[in-house]
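Build the 3D complex.
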Amino acid sequence: DAGVIQSPRHEVTEMGQEVTLRCKPISGHNSLFWYRQTMMRGLELLIYFNNNVPIDDSGMPEDRFSAKMPNASFSTLKIQPSEPRDSAVYFCASSPRDREGYEQYFGPGTRLTVT
Amino acid sequence: GNSVTQMEGPVTLSEEAFLTINCTYTATGYPSLFWYVQYPGEGLQLLLKATKADDKGSNKGFEATYRKETTSFHLEKGSVQVSDSAVYFCALFGGGSYIPTFGRGTSLIVHP
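Done.
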């Protein structure tokens, strides 16, 4: 099992540019989560999908952020336009939600720097 | 809503010392409890879990027991190594909410 795959691993962009982060969940997992991690705010849940449908996006900071899951094996998180305060590590996690325990499996993260 | 409270870090220990990282939770229902570990530059990895009261999760010398009466899930290790230096997150899933709840994380630094 390859685990959760995220790309790119590092992204440096200028303020105002569009940024797209990608995630491939573990095959067979039907829940997917996007998180943001910063020193100041810790680990924040941005959005949660179940069976490709967004269930809770209350953690999405503002309209500049959007997420999609067009199929069970792919999800994107887009920031447009990006701002320096968006600099953080973004994690994708998937979960075999129908199994007891609901543990999540995290990807390696994308480190985003907006200058 | 659900919440997880972890002890503030960093926790600094010498190699072979005993480790305890406290975690308490608030939840309705009966959540599953987890400890995750994050090494520098990496994502969170599941360390151990317990799915019901009095269960003990264990892995790599780490242990934690699900204590419903004290709503706690403290992480322990009898003898830490330098390689255990990382950030440790306590988390709960379920318990009346489909949204996982993580603690703020506790940094552990182990000196030779």
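Residues 2 and 27 of chain B are 5 Å apart (CA to CA).
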